[in-house]
Model the fold of this input.
Amino acid sequence: MWDWINTVVLKFRSCFTREATFKMFVIVLLGLMLRSDHLGISSIIREFGLVESIYTPLVNFFRSNAWQLSDIRNTWIAIVKNTQFLSMESGKFILVGDGVKESKEGRKMPGVKKLHQESDNSAKSEYIHGHHFGGVGALASNGVKEYCILLSVRLHEGVAAIRGWLGDDNYNEESHVVKTIRDAAGIAKMLGESILLLDRLYLTRPMLKALAQAPGLSVVTKAKCNATAFLPPGKYKGRGAPRKKGPSVKVAELFDTHAQLFKQSEMVLYGKKETVRYFCVDLLWGDGVYQSIRFVLTDVVGGTRSIFASTDLTLAPERIIALYSRRFKIECAFREFKQVVAGFAYHFWSKAMPKLRRFKSNDINALNLEAVTDNHQRELIARTVKAIEGFAHISAIALGMLQLTGLFFWKDINLDGSRFMRTRSSTTPSERTAADFLRKNIFSLFMVHPKLAITMILYDRKIHHFSKQPDRQGHYAA
Done:
């Protein structure tokens, strides 16, 4: 197990121009995987018993110019692809995309803005100040348990002006939906043809336009109950410009007008066997775009009605319904991302950043970035954004490493009797169980595998070597 972790970690060496920076990356990655508390970078030092002087280099690592986030992201995608655990449907990889909003109170923290939360959860405020991240992951399974391994986590709002300073002018005009498609397209370019599962928020005309520029990527999503589509234009009669669309159709009305055409099938949705009635029809959707989309109207017996949509017209309706039911895996991934590795437990800020004006309704006036004209101050702010995204993405890698450890070495972890489990929901351990197992065995790593690269990196930074640790009476072993 430790040999495998060591091999994976060493694959990131080419992403760093300096050896010392790579060693900091190893410490940060292992620390995020195994730390028992989430109280800042100091928790990594406490977990491994490292020297106190390493605190400043660890903090400075996230702003270092010796690495680029794109290199780390591409290496991580290649590693996950080579594990052979990625789930596929009709010869295509299955990606899942979604956004997550994290509350942040820092008034000098780049990217913080007023956000609206669409959740029906009464425990969440309707409006918060915080960061809006977009995440894209790939489904991976060993036949028993399926994970969503996060491959890309990046800020999608509040940093448009800062991206413009770095020369990314197109980023200013792109919405969260378009950015998610762009992120998924970059991943699909490395993996191969892919299907992207999205929530109903994403079925928009900008999404279809962005998807047209992403070859090899198709989308399965959910349509709103008031969706209006169009029939094909019919045969051209030779007079005037050819019609782009036919008569409009209220998709939800098909539940009643085409009730006799519905088919019935037994499906496993969200882990439960359900009886589903469904009807499939291909219609044109999107004013000015008029793209052919496969709509699947479903009526779960004893449940609710839903309308699913797929840009891949070759997918069978049963597969579209089953695919969308697997979209919730990214919700589970975000939950573990917050609770197990604390991927949002950062507090990077910059003195060069203007104070956030919380009571300004206009985002440009609230962020006040137009007042930053000095190039050095802009560089400091851009580095802070890099630190935030770097921390989040390395946390995603840490979570993915725990998921892959569970998929590869589930037998070794289950045979360990040090973690009591009243009931086991699966033979494949969860991310928390894998982290607990590795945390309890990390110090035996120094003794059993002293020549591994990760061993030597951590060993060189420890306060005391094992042969020099005193006992309770203060005596040292011979």
In short: The two ends are 31 Å apart (CA to CA). Residues 231-317 form one domain. The first helix runs from residue 2 to 10.
